[in-house]
Amino acid sequence: MLMVQGGDPTLFFEWNVTYGTIAPLGVPVKGILINGQFPGPNLNSTTNNNIVVNVFNNLDEPFLVTWDGVQHRKNSWQDGVLGTNCPIPPGKNYTYKFQVKDQIGSYMYYPVTAMHKAVGGFGGLRVNSRLLIPVPYADPADDYTLLVGDFFNKGHTSLKKILDSGRNLGRCDGIHLNGKVAKGDGKDEPLFTMEAGKTYKYRICNTGIKTSLNVRFQGHTMKLVEMEGSHTMQNDYDSLDVHVGQCFSVLVTANQEPRDYYVVASTRFTRREVTATGIIRYKNGKGAASSELPPPPVGWAWSLNQFRTFRWNLTSNAARPNPQGSYKYGSINITRTIKLANTAQRVDGKLRYALNGVSYVEPTTPLKLAEYYGVADKVFKYDTIPDEPPSDNTKVTLAPIVLNMTHRNFVEIIFENHETAIQSYHLSGYSFFAVGMDIGKWSPEKRMNYNLLDAVSRHTIQVFPNSWSAILLTFDNCGMWNLRSEIWDRHYLGQQLYASVISPNRSLKDEYNLPEGVLTCGIVQGMPRPPPFSS
Fold this sequence. Notes:
By secondary structure, the protein is mostly beta strands. It has helices at about 155-165, 300-310, 365-370, 490, and strands at about 1-5, 10-20, 30-35, 45, 50-55, 65-70, 95-100, 105-110, 125-130, 145-150, 175, 190-195, 200-205, 215, 220-225, 230, 235, 240, 245-255, 260-265, 275-280, 335-345, 350-355, 360, 395-400, 400-405, 410-415, 425, 430-440, 455-460, 460-465, 465-475, 480-485, 495-500. Helix content is about 5%, strand content about 35%.
């Protein structure tokens, strides 16, 4: 439903979250459905729309959904993570109200509670450009969302028990494309249809829980046009590595003989490669898809090199009329450098994942509520980790991690991965410039090789084994923001933290007040609401 009141339009959605049987790999699993759908419905919006989503939790356990990549300017209250929001209790509802302010692009939403994400509750979230803002390519014939992800047939309760007992999840059972896998028996329904001679937009997101995937279209190339809210230089690719939590938009032109073709997804950096396919059907086409699938790339050096080909389109617009490149991030002085090293350790015999020697534990009171109500000291301590990994990074303590960030500081964050597993990180509330990535350990002279001109502004970044990645951003969005591993067993077992950015003036210019109707829990439940910011 759409409503316009003088300002920006408001979109209303009502979501019923239920259990239901799903079988993406042919094995029945207890899944999580939104309005009866797996994956959930596409949330379709336009720049500056106000979005109201009333979520009814009909599960038998708490549930919470986050809007991955939506920046929620001045409004971390709506981010939908456990550091900002109480989960929705069983049988209750909560209404999210947020604006997709000054954003365009391809995003997703998904649950952050327990291991719910493994069995559904996720879907595509798109922010279209306003009609008056030029887009650097012609309107496609259609706009499709392709959600690819790994899948575990054990179900979310069993996966949670495995992690709670301190064990590793192991490898996935397979991968799905929009919740399905083509059987190749000639009876498959197409995922998408194309008309010869026309060009189509595909928004490809990796909604899985731990596996990087390579995506390719049989017989067709992909022109990359947008990545997580930024228009990119329009290079052509035969295949794209899409790491967990990442979204790319590509254009595919139907320029081949009219028949069926496969869209193919394969696991990357796994001992055993798993491949799945879906059907792309040409309208009035004749003939089945060829069983000869395009091969995936080999090794992660290929993937690192592909990352280096991604460039910001400096001359095109994003959500605003001015060109993206008018923001000269490369000339701003760095005021703080934070180096984060991930480790996998056993604590009391159980597997935990840590950053700089601390493994995050979720307090029963959301951090943001504790801070706002003035009881932070009863829930967490600020700056429990140093800005550099400790020299002995094998000792791990369990605690909430909250970094105290100075409003508007320009910060460099380096992710160092000394493990043999690939990492993928996301930062809520922001986009950042992914300026560098290389093998080995980071050192200050590596800054000489940073891309300070046209690095893509995005919200996720991968870190290859025994490698580092560097990002730059201005912490100008007040709130409590989650920096997390998108690899969900790592997230669940402690590989995440929060950045607290407080308005120095306690001003509505910097941050919105606690919304009416917000759920309270933990020690703030029943406490009187603090006085609101007045101006």
